[in-house]
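As a representative case, the lines below give one protein's residues and fold tokens.
***
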Amino acid sequence: MDFFARQAQVRSSTRVLVVLFALAVIAIVLAVDVSVFAVFGHPWLRAGDLVRYQHRLITWTTLAMLVLIFGCAFYRIHSLAEGGSAVAEDVGGVPVPPDVTDAKLKRLRNVIEEVAIASGMPVPDIYVMPQEAGINAFAAGYSASDAAICVTQGCLDHLTRDELQGVIAHEFSHVLNGDMRLNIRLMGLLFGIMAISVIGRQFAWTDDYEDPERVAEKKVIGYMFGLGFIIIGSIGYFFGRLIQAAVARSRESLADASAVQFTRQTSGIAGALKKMAVVPWGSLLRVGNRHEVAHMMFGDVDKFNSWFATHPPLMQRIRTLEPWFREQQLSELERSVSGALAEDDGVASADVDAVVEKKELPPLEWPGDTDTATAVAPVAVVAAVAANAPPQERFQQVRTVQRSMPASLTTAARKPETALTLALALAMSEHEDLRPRQRRFIANAFGDDVLGATDQLVADELTLTAAQRMPLIALSFPALKQLPPGRLETLRETLDAIVSVDPQVELDDYCLVRLLRMYLREAAKPRSAPVEGQKKLPACRDSLSLVCAVVAVYGSNDDASARRAWLTAMDQAFPGATFQWQILPMEWQPKLDSALDDLDRLLPAAKEIVIQSLQRAIEADGVVTPTEKELLRVVCASLHCPVPHQTSASV
């Protein structure tokens, strides 16, 4: 799925949302104004006084309704300021701890970690809705740094590993495509326009009256007022459901296709959709506020009218993925469901997936079709970014890399305080002469105990390959986010100090600290995460020149090759223009930070050109070095774009 085109569609969805919300507000305000005018607009007053009274009545009524709607919307959005975890907990999600021992939860964590690392993203917070028997899931948050992925118990009980991976890949596409921020805004706006219905229900069914002699009279008055508010609130309900359907339906089809691009096979997500169609609960939810999150779920949360359905029909989604599938086959699958799940006998095994597979429904394969993988031709870097799609082999690479990591480091990545020491150890220089100063920074910031724990991890950290460092940071990120805000701020400052010890800082150390610092900053204040930029490329010419120069210099063996790579990149961005070679300053780190922040303010179409330019610089000598891969990962993360997996072949 074309990432940059998807960004344009997100902008279009935002415009649709704004228009429909404005229409809803106008309709609600008019309905309230007419109702209030009909009841209170004709007192016995002289003509001149009557006109002034009516003007004031309508003005104050309009203002009161606008304050109510926008105030409720602001309150709801503010209540979700903590990002994805707040949304997950709001619908009854329970966090899945890193050291979980339950086989199904362990498999869920393994799948999400694999998809995150293969996508070049930090591992999100993981939640499960244990009371929900339906097959459903959602991703929430303002950015990848504060994202949370929540699945129902039905997903754990009914789906095979491939099917679960397909569902998770579907949700990751929402993270990468920028859908999540729009989803949270939509939750707030829906709460605002539906608030009148809630107020009406409170009026209509309240029994709290102080004067027992007038209970009957007050009940009638309360019921009439409540009924009026409920009727007017139905306008908000109508527009709310219409907004959800308009914004969500097309995105779900795109996310299905993105899941296929992630996993390079259709049987996983198609199998999950088929099981949604045949299990007793389907994708339905029982939680009271399910309608509030209907637009962000994997499947419909209720039996909506076709006008208000947030997802395309199940058979349409299945046949988009497998055109040969017929509805009659669902009845056969439904019969095979009965008794397919065995009772949990408490068997322990090192192979968690093998244990769980014994308790799952059989995979739903098309008879005679032994290979449903999609053939993928080699593509350019920018096309790889647009596709959002790591090849299937990459998931196996991730598993191999994770299993080859020292146990001391993977264990440290799971808990907040040890994850802190791991981050410090990863930032330490390989050069012995720089470490005494770096150790002093750590001791001054955190004390001798943290310094000692860091020293113990450094020896194992030095054995890591370039392919293991970034995944280790991704794994430790959920634990790091649990640190108190003050400790996180101290960690960011200490990492900056450690890396700045040497003006000629190693690029891999810079890349690691840049990513970690950016993720932690966005996670600390989710709502402040960067939104879509508005700048055009010419306004960022100097920033692009510096970034391309860093890529060219660190990816070339000599100055002449670096200049050729840089000129090729700049010509891609500004055809026909003349350029002067960008000499890297001695202390290039803060300048590169500023340049990346500047490029993140570009329009999506301009970011596409930036990635194309970097592609030209990387391909100039026909070799993609590990340094270029890591730097490309940092640039893409800084621009909030997916990593081009065909180029960054190492994890």
